[in-house]
Amino acid sequence: MLTVELAARLGIGRSRIRTEVRRGNWQRLAAGVVLAAPGEPTRFDWAEAGVALGGPDSAVTGWEALRAIGLGDRTPPPTQPVVLMSRVLTREVGGVWLRYTRRRYVPRLLPADADRLALTPIVPPARAVADAALEYRDLSRVRALVTSALQRRACSVADLLAELAAMPRQHSALFRLALADARDGARSAAEAVAARRLIRAPVPPFELNVPIVRDGQLVYVVDVLWRALRAVLEIDSREYHFSEPQWKATMARHNVLTRLGLAVAHYPPSAIGRRGWADEVAAWLRSRADELGVPYRPSGSVRAARPLIVR
Fold this sequence. Notes:
4-stranded mixed sheet, alpha/beta, 6-stranded mixed sheet, single chain
């Protein structure tokens, strides 16, 4: 990407630019901004052009900023790339939106060897997640976006909640729901879907991501726990994201939990959305209650997780 000013510093005159554009080797993206390559400009090309047009405090946000640091879905949202700036003139230029914002952001310059947007300023990850979430219309995509950022420790739940509090409410409903899942303790998109389905099902109160502790030592953290029933639901499967060693580790984990007196049910993420899944879980829990001789009190609610001490 070249601006007229940068080209001049590199010793490239306007006549050279005109010649390369005329020959089809380069192309003009906007006034004073040239892509020094043929072919259709990519979303990242337009993002860089937006920074060139947006001024010294501009920064790339949303999907492009996340992909540049290895986060986010490979499929972009249906909207154009967004570049933030603090001056008042929101406008569309070619394939990029230059968006004025009063919300403060601190740009970070990507290194020269970055695969995408090298030497280009981007916003912090939490801001990029929040802005990208506004561009999607699919809750599962927004959940995956939020949970992937949390799993990679690119930002915290607190960071994302701060962004939610500062952003406009319009179009933020999906981001709000995805964050509610994360705040309840779900750490993957599959866990989030499972929790929402279980809340609507005839099951007793449950906890998410519960530490199992024996002799003062952490044994495992289980996905879903029904404490009174000593029942654990695990969402983890070789078909989804496990290598062979990880699959064997999962089996060992299952055996340890069983020896500690816990009933364990495993479901792959592909089963969570299946019709009748939540009823199947409810039937299993009713059988567990009968086995233990304890009351079965469905309420479909999530309780705050606390360690389960076992012997």
